[in-house]
Amino acid sequence: MFVSLNWLKQYVNIDNITPEELAERITRSGIEVEGIERIAPESTNVVVGYVESCEQHPNADKLNLCQINVGTETYQIICGAPNIAQGQKIAAALPGARLPGGMKIKKAKLRGVESNGMVCSLQELGIDEKFVPKEFAEGIFVFPEDTEVGTPVAELLNLDDVILELGLTPNRADAMSMLGVAYEVAAILNKEVNLPDEAYPTSDSKAADFVQVKVEDGELNPYYGAYVIENVKIAPSPLWMRNYLIAAGIRPINNVVDITNYVLLVYGQPLHAFDYDKVATKEIIVRTANEGETMQTLDDQERTLKGDELVITNGKEPIALAGVMGGANSEVSNQTTTVLLEAAYFDSRAIRRSSKHHNLRSEASSRYEKGIDPNRVKKAGAYAARLLAEYAGGTVAEGVVEFDELDRQEKKVELDTTSVNARLGTAISDEEIASILTRLQFHFEQTNSQFTVSIPTRRGDISLFEDMLEEIARIYGYDNIPYTLPEGEAFAGKLTTKQYLKRQLKQYLQGAGLMETITYSLTSKARTEMLVSPEVKEQSVHAVALKMPMSEEHSHLRISLLPELVDTLSYNVARKQDNLGYFEFGRVFLSEEEQTTEQPTETARLAGAITGMWMEQPWQQEKKPVDFYVVKGIVEGIFAQLDLEPAFQQAQVDGYHPGRTATVSHNGRAVGVVGQLHPTVQKAYDLKETYVFDLDAAYLMDQYKEEPSFRTVPRHPSVTRDIALVVDETAHAGDIQRTIKESGGELVQQVQIFDVYQGEHMETGKKSIAYTVLYQDPTRTLTDEEVEASYNSIMEAVKAVHGAELRS
Amino acid sequence: MREKLEALQAEAIEKVQQADNLQSLQDVRVAYLGKKGPITEVLRGMGKLSPEERPVIGELANKVREAIATALDNKKNLLEEAALNEQLQKEAIDVTLPGRPVKTGGPHLLTSIIEEVEDLFLGMGFEIKEGPEVETDYFNFEALNLPQDHPARDMQDTFYITDHLLLRTQTSPVQARTMREYNGDKAIKMICPGIVYRRDSDDATHSHQFTQIEGLLIDKNVRMSDLKGVLLEFSRKLFGADREIRLRPSFFPFTEPSVEVDVTCKVCDGKGCNVCKHTGWIEILGAGMVHSNVLRMSGYDPEEYSGFAFGMGVERIAMLKYGVDDIRHFYTNDVRFLSQYHKA
């Protein structure tokens, strides 16, 4: 909402406050002033001049040599505008004038002839091109004939006005009108509001002879008033009205349209003017549209109606989309002589639906949607009738043809000083509350500290105690509320185990050299089909699709973190950042269907992606690219953080290197994958060797046992035995390790691999793996015999299970 | 014999002095103190001496032996020290060459802010709650006093999945869920950080995905002044001990009264600068007293309980606190951005 201060002055006294101060006061008490604009702050020494003569420049075809009388003097000014003519009243910028944009007017010679100033167009005076009437768009502006010569143009064109731009929250629909703003400012400054006089003269005609009004649904349209104004002469509206409309951001059209817009801005009440003769049937019927019915709106759009819009019809066809926009078939034109003026109250939800359906917002619909004041409908209609008589030469027929089931009752809200103070933490007195209510111009009855407040219908946002609480607080001033701390029971704040583990895992990964990332949850459909962890894929889940995505790139919810995570590597590599280790702890969204009506399962996953050098110390010629075992080590660490034991199984997984990938499981349950990206995937992302992991973090965190029990610190020495085995080259070291552990008995505490060898001195197709087995009993020293016995059963087992031989 | 022993001592000590490495020193030791050495020989010939002379010469011989041994030891220490010094000198390295880097990663800036805010509120006795990002229309809107067709729904452009399922546009549904969980008869002190979504085109100040932290306190006799007190405490801990806050009236459907909260600009100390658009204040969060409709719908009796809620955009806080100029930085994950906010 743009508020012209010159206009506002008509309704409330703001003489003793600067626009900046006023803006600050308004902002601090409820409505944010988002901007303070001056229309043309720099225009000086530009006055109305009378074109006494206008002849062609002796040396130039397209220039005119004009004698311009500004009252005290006559100036010779050369003007190139095509529409200048003798007898006009124009805006003359005299020598010394400054125009918006900093242009200075000086005496000059044009093609050998002296020119003492400049005749200005509206654009040159600082008025936005979109508000300049068509007839003046390509040339200078011409003032009405009765304009006084010598008057400063700034005053006439309202160039000295200051516009406040209000950022209105949806509840403050009351401030979508000049009167609403006036009430607000009056409350803040403790002033009176001067209301317009709506009385109008009537002719001998009777409106009821011209039109009948029928409303089908009094819920959707509780009030419809039709005024008839005859003998209207379409012409430009008065300059002051045009100025205010421009200040409010509305382009002036003609007197009738301008008056309806002007009244809409004053009262916040949308009005519509029909050309009575075009309505043709002497009948107005308001009904819901029929599905498939068509009509053309004033913006020349053909619209097919869906069937739940309200339409104004002439009994045969729609002549307006109610509360949104008029129809082209009943539009006021230069030939219009009789105007049928509509002042109506439509249900906000109905208008909202209709405006949404047709993606059509208008000054009218934006007000109806948020709710208008039922007590201003008739006032606005009357005021428009008055202005049509005054500025369009109209004669107003007697009476208003009405349908009226409108509830105009004021709501009552009970209030007591104790509750107000209890809720705000203040010590406001009864007198202060009474004074605030008076400033707001809310009527009330008071018994000591009990108030019964009648809420003016203009404030449709107020219906409850707390709404009144806000009114009192904002006028009292939030700065005046003290600072206290809650007095309730004290709680101890603590992270839950899962919240703690999430932090713990993140910290572990950061310590392990990975950088945390956060990527978008919305991704493309194609990406939802990539790099999905096998155990997720097995559940045959789908990525949930948005109903109306903004782009293909963000159309589905992710079911894997990796596609976007790998993409961030790609993004960085493209920017010459070659060595990267990233992880993300985030949610995926698993659903049984793509178009789902159920909330998908949201579950936490932990994924990482590493590419480039894992270790690099150039001057010592040390370089180690990331490999499978780096990433596997990180995954093992994640399990260690949770006191869990992972198992790895070589696997073929879509998108992964077939020989360098393992599924990860815990206690036989698949929980993720670790491996190298398949070279074709790497290529698609423009990456070199890249290793990733992807784990079901939610499940793993669930397995964590909060309090590990104490384990005796060993006081007795441990014993180690090294076992070097020869096995087939395809044998898996981890499988053998497990066999050793399982077959060695309870005394085996740890089995570590310390050497893997294949090559010279080795039979082809064989390799050697060496293990160190650590034996320990924390309560006693071990004997050689028991270690020997365990060693023997290990040897037997590995021979039997893996065909392993002792390396000689 | 006495003369002979004294001459031997002088001779041996001179040899010790002449030895210039450990080997020649060892040779001297063997030559004089060895079993075949001259001193042993002298001692062997003691049988020929008179019983009176024997102890005297014996004592002398031992003294000579000791003197030679001491000289040998001293010399050995000297030589060893020299050898060590020589070796240490050889081992010298260029300490100005760079050290071996310890590879560490770091948290995302948004995580750092979230955890900082979490810790702050944990310290004030709040718990941390989470909720689904795919929400029902009911919890995202209706339970928060935003019925169908409410004009305030226009404030937020929503990604819908179906007419009743959507990506949450705010973390407030977690408040509604928590209130239900607490059954309407227990006090609540919680914050809920989380990802939210709006149908916005991504640009320097808009992101279709962003992060919010909301807080909720419900108890008997909660006052607006408590909200001011808690937010002042929070702002000072997050932005600096000398910060001030101010409340401006605003509108949110789920609170009444509703306010926006500004903190004094850190850049200019409230004097006015480009960052705060010359107001001296920067908006950091929205807040208000929980609307009675919300309390009632969630099972709390507004006659008995009252509360306040507040919410902030984490990206906005990060942008203000660290001067980040483009919200997209948080999601492009450029390593040159991420690594600015931790010490690697």
List keywords for this structure.
heterodimer, A: 808 residues, alpha+beta, Phenylalanyl-tRNA Synthetase, Chain B, domain 1, OB fold (Dihydrolipoamide Acetyltransferase, E2P), Phenylalanyl-tRNA Synthetase, Chain B, domain 3, 6 domains, 6-stranded antiparallel β-sheet, B: alpha+beta, BirA Bifunctional Protein, domain 2, 7-stranded mixed β-sheet, 12 helices
Overview of this protein structure:
The complex is a heterodimer of chains A (808) and B (344). Chain A has 808 residues and is of the alpha+beta class. Chain A has 23 helices and 42 strands. In chain A, the strands form 11 sheets. Chain A has a 7-stranded mixed β-sheet with strand order 28-31-32-38-37-36-35, sandwiched between helices. In chain A, strands 3, 4, 5, 6, 9 and 10 form a 6-stranded antiparallel β-sheet that branches. In chain A, helix 13 (430-439) packs across helix 14 (465-476), helix 15 packs antiparallel against helix 19 and helix 22 (733-743) crosses helix 23 (784-802). The radius of gyration of chain A is 41 Å and the shape is elongated. With 344 residues, chain B is an alpha+beta fold. Chain B folds into 2 domains: 2-90; 109-341, BirA Bifunctional Protein, domain 2. In chain B, the strands form 2 sheets. Chain B has a 7-stranded mixed β-sheet with strand order 1-4-5-9-8-7-6, with helices on both faces. In chain B, helix 2 runs antiparallel to helix 4 (53-90). Chain B is rod-shaped. Classes of the chains: A alpha+beta (808), B alpha+beta (344). The interface between A and B is large, with 98 and 86 residues.
